[in-house]
Write a structure and sequence with these properties.
The chain has 208 residues and is an alpha/beta fold. It is built from seven helices and eight strands.
């Protein structure tokens, strides 16, 4: 399938079929994304080195973790308290084999999760808040599980930021979060002609 996988998963409307697509793609997912120049690990590393300061034992949620490509970079940076959450059991199976997560949870971000409120120092969600995947309503759930004064690092494609309600949802939650920085636009998969241009949004949860 090669480059067609990206178009398939981002145009899928059915969550059941989406899970099946990821099941079929899982074994080749890492190689494909690396070939396409997957930019999120580098972007997240920059943020953790330059924009926010957290301890190495900080509790991190990798929300929509997939096979763990971003967490591999976190692990290389000596962060070792990472929880992964994803909808696809097949992607989680590969993530588990890397032995970089303290715990892996199979749940959808499209509804309220079983995660306890106010527990993570950092909530990461990259390549997930987009068409065909998880909508803007998940923003509130990601805030809910973030500690007071913890950080949210969210990637959102420019083309859908307003169109799919992300801008509106973030503005509605201004009483809970304060903006630290929004990155310059970058292409998430520079070697793939269908890749979106994204920005990383960095917020801090306010004291409540």
């Amino acid at each position: 399938m090669g480059k067609k996988w990206l178009d398939i998963v981002y145009n899928e409307k059915s969550s059941v079929r989406l899970k099946e697509h990821y099941k079929n793609w899982a074994s080749k997912y890492d190689n494909d994304l690396i070939d396409w120049g997957y930019a999120y690990p580098t972007q997240v590393k920059k943020i953790l080195e330059s924009n926010i300061k957290i301890k190495r034992n900080s509790k991190i949620l990798d929300a929509g973790c997939g096979t763990g490509l971003v967490a591999e970079t976190l692990n290389d940076m000596k962060f070792n308290n990472i929880i992964g959450l994803d909808y696809s059991a097949d992607m989680l199976k590969i993530a588990k084999s890397k032995k970089i997560y303290k715990k892996l949870i199979q749940e959808s971000l499209s509804k309220k999760t079983t995660l306890r409120s106010n527990q993570f120092d950092v909530v990461l969600c990259t390549g997930v808040l987009t068409s065909g995947h998880v909508g803007a309503k998940a923003i509130n759930e990601l805030i809910r599980v973030t500690k007071n004064q913890g950080y949210l690092i969210l990637s959102i494609a420019e083309s859908i930021y307003e169109k799919l309600g992300f801008k509106n949802e973030i503005e509605k939650n201004n009483f809970q979060i304060s903006k630290i920085k929004i990155s310059k636009p970058f292409v998430a998969l520079p070697n793939h002609e269908s890749s979106a241009t994204s920005k990383i949004h960095i917020y801090q949860r306010k004291l409540t």
